[in-house]
Amino acid sequence: MEVKIAGRMSQIKPSPTLAITAKAKALKAQGVDVVGFGAGEPDFDTPEHIKEAAVKALKEGFTKYTPVPGIDELRQAVADQLARDYGLEYAKEEIIVSCGAKHSLYNIAMVLLEPGDEVIIPSPYWVTYPAQVYIAEATPVIVETLDGNDFKLTPEQLEEAITPMTKALILNYPSNPTGASYTKEELEKLAEVALKHDIWVISDEIYDKIIYDGFQHVPFATLSPEVKENTLLVNGVSKTYSMTGWRIGWVAGNRDVVAAMNKLQSQSTSNPTSMAQSAALAALQGPQDCVAEMVKAFQERRDYIVQRFNSMEGVSCFNPSGAFYVFPSFAGLYGRRYGDRVIQSSLDFADYLLNEFKVAIVPGVAFGEDKGARLSYATSMENIKKGLDRIEEAISQLK
Ligand SMILES: *Cc1c(COP(=O)(O)O)cnc(C)c1O
Fold first, then answer.
1. Å from CA of 312 to ligand 1 middle
2. Same fold for the domain at 7-45+290-396 and the one at 48-285?
3. Which of 44, 256, 258, 360 is a plausible cystine mate for 242, CB 3.0–4.6 Å?
4. What are the extents of the domains in the chain?
């Protein structure tokens, strides 16, 4: 039989990072000492009390279908956390739990977007956003943010990108891949533009608890009751509680949108895994000091990595206020050579580091910004030091 894959799949590009990740893995398997900065997840284990809650659920036979949008207790716990931490009030009917925040975002795209709709996505962006917009047969509109503005979308840029076809803005702060975040004042100006044009704001705040230097995370929905009505707040347990494998995420927002997501979920995945919901409930209701400990370790690493990069000739590194990534610019090195090859792009530089110095980074082109690259510091300080020594040596050998 001739295999004919549906046309919508042709819009989704295989990630340009896959080649480099695969190569790094292959080298590691051969026993080569590769330093990896690719991790998109915390390097800490899921806290013990959370695992125990899942074990208990299993032992007690909590192994069957649950309500499609998640158990009532978990939806209530999400509402309670938003109320406690940010003063946000949501009814249970305004919250739906899905199989990871990526799934939440996917469901939003499927229930809101139609062919012809435009979705504004600031770059550098998390690669999943444009891919999901394509799957929904809508059109991503990429707006380039600048290093000079700390990778933040300005209200002027937003205004300029909006057309009659604009359906939504996807905002992600603290950001993957840059770690950039917004102050309340900056958010208010963006909200003003979004409200004026009556567009949805899909606010991916999955890194809200991973913030540094006392930075205050301001959920978009807190800006005003009108803004809250137009905001779909996305979050989950993956990053905050080192629970990427458990697959629990959620959306808080407009009840009609949530009801549509519920309907879609009922005919696709049904409920998120029962015992993972029990674990997420323990995460939200249990002690939060595990989060503070993790953030403290991340902050030490961030301080170190930013200072090292900024001391390297030809490199500049923006100091992120959250998440666990840095996105240094290596553009100052483009045009330099090693042997008979010239470094002309983020992919060239990443290739050079991996081939010659056994360091794996993710080239910025994967996130729509070729000047830089993403390094995750969700890896030990020892690895970070070793990797940065190698990068420094690699740069010194360029002519
Ligand atoms: C990790 C991540 C997510 C989602 O993670 P899930 O494991 O699917 O909950 C969403 N957005 C960004 C920007 C991320 O980095």
1. 31
2. no
3. 44
4. 7-45+290-396, 48-285
Which homologous superfamily is 7-45+290-396 in? Aspartate Aminotransferase, domain 1 (3.90.1150.10)
CATH code of domain 48-285: 3.40.640.10
Q: How far is the CA of 102 from the centre of ligand 1 (A)?
A: 6
Distance 131 CA to ligand 1 centre (A): 14
Segment 262-284, tens digit of pLDDT? 999 999 999 999 999 999 999 99
| 236 CB within 6 A, ligand 1 | yes
The finding on whether 241 has its CB within 6 A of some atom of ligand 1 is: no
- State the DSSP string of 126-175: -THHHHHHHHTT-EEEEEE--GGGTT---HHHHHHH--TTEEEEEEESS-
For 339-358, write each residue's pLDDT tens digit.
999 999 999 999 999 999 99
Say if ligand 1 is within 6 A of residue 102 CB.
yes
For ligand 1, say whether the CB of 176 is within 6 Å of any of its atoms: yes
Instruction: For ligand 1, say whether the CB of 203 is within 6 Å of any of its atoms.
Output: no
pLDDT (average), residues 91-120: 98
Query: What is the SS3 assignment for 367?
Result: helix
Amino acid at 115: P
Given a contact cutoff of 8 angstroms between Cβ atoms, the answer to whether 38 and 376 are in contact is yes
**Is 204 touching ligand 1 by the criterion CB < 6 Å?**
yes
Q: Is the CB of 280 under 6 A from ligand 1?
A: no
The confidence score (pLDDT) of residue 40 equals 85
The pLDDT assigned to 16 comes to 62
User: If you average pLDDT over every residue of the chain, what do you get?
Assistant: 96
Atom of ligand 1 nearest to the CA of 176: 13
Residue pointed to by tokens 């696709």 = 268
Chain length of the chain: 399
* Among protein residues, the one whose CA lies closest to atom 2 of ligand 1: 206
What gap in Å lies between CA 237 and CA 92, rounded to an integer? 18
Residue with tokens 């020594």: 389
